[in-house]
Amino acid sequence: MKTILYIGIGSFVGGISRYFLSSLIQLKFKSAFPFGTMFVNIIGCFFIGIVYGWATTGNLSTGCRLFLTTGLLGGFTTFSAFSFEIVAMLQNNEFISAGLYLIISVLVGISFTFLGLTIMKAL
User: Fold this and answer.
1) 3-state DSSP assignment of residue 92
2) Which of 69, 42, 77, 74 is nearest to 53 (CA)?
3) Cβ of 54: how many Cβ atoms within 10 Å?
């Protein structure tokens, strides 16, 4: 139960942080291009690399790692987890799996977003 609480609190803080930071950046650029979301995704990737690097030293408890990765950074951006998983596959020489995961996630994800929008417009 403690683990669920750690993840939940982290997700709450991460989600709110994502909203405020991406909104602030988007206002600064005053553009239709999603600079805010792009920046949040990139910074989330940087920090998940730091956290997983820290975890490999053995100096980070499981609860703290879950709070930071699944909770805080998961709430901040799931793109960081996606990026880490691809990097982990590449480091394990799982090049075909990494490529398939990348291509399928992006193409199928975009396709399903379009499909969901199309279905809702048809209703």
Assistant:
1) coil
2) 69
3) 14
- What is the per-residue pLDDT across 11-63, written as a single tens digit (0 to 9) for each? 999 999 999 999 999 999 988 889 999 999 999 999 999 998 899 898 999 99
Sort 113 into a burial class: Cβ within 10 Å, 0-12 / 13-18 / 19+: exposed
Conformational region of residue 77, where left means phi above 0, alpha means psi within -120 to 50, and beta covers everything else: beta
Q: What is the pTM of this model?
A: 0.78
**Token couple for 76:** 């901040």
Put residue 45 in one of left, alpha, beta given phi > 0 → left and psi -120 to 50 → alpha: alpha
To 10 degrees, what angle do helices 35-55 and 78-91 make? 50
